[in-house]
């Protein structure tokens, strides 16, 4: 890690500690309605407005896609700020929000996976940011099943948001690799946003090539055309 990234990591951590200390004097408030809250980013009422809890079966190389929240308004803004405005102190709140979004019904669907992993950010982008968004948001799994570094990016890809869906597939083709054998395993792969699904589908293909018998996606949010 470069000196710059080390300094920034300390700065980000201090930022989060200050936020927690600040909550003693200024309690945490729901990002939408400003009601006082103890955990997460939203109050229970507002959380319901963001909840999607949708399941799609059979999507390209994925057996299923499970989507937790709608990517819009304050949640869209928060994810954007974490990714592009370096507001790392929001990450722990989004992690709590993801955990709160995995309700009992959803949790029941997640019990029979051998491995839980996530879509890796490119090493360059990770070095710039100092963290990997999906790995941070879903770190609450934190069990023997949680293997956030299973997939590797073997080459860089262009940002996908400007590309047509057909070009997105081409852009990500062959960009992931799995170095270990996962023969016969069921894998749950997590990501922050589900849009066209091309990145997740490509990641699922790499997992299948390494022997996975079943690959399901769990996404923190989903874009409007998937609701
Ligand atoms: Zn609220």
Q: What does the model show?
A:
The protein is built from 9 helices and 7 strands. It is α/β, with parallel strands linked by helices. The chain has one domain (50-226): Rossmann fold (3-Layer(aba) Sandwich), CATH 3.40.50. The strands form 2 sheets. Strands 1-2-7-6-3 form a 5-stranded mixed sheet. It has a two-stranded antiparallel sheet with strand order 4-5. α9 links the parallel β6 (186-194) and β7. The termini are far apart. Bound molecules: zinc ion. Residues 30, 32-33, 35, 42-43, 45-46 line the site of zinc ion (ZN).
Features of this protein?
227 residues; binds zinc ion; Rossmann fold; 5-stranded mixed beta sheet; globular; 9 helices; two-stranded antiparallel sheet
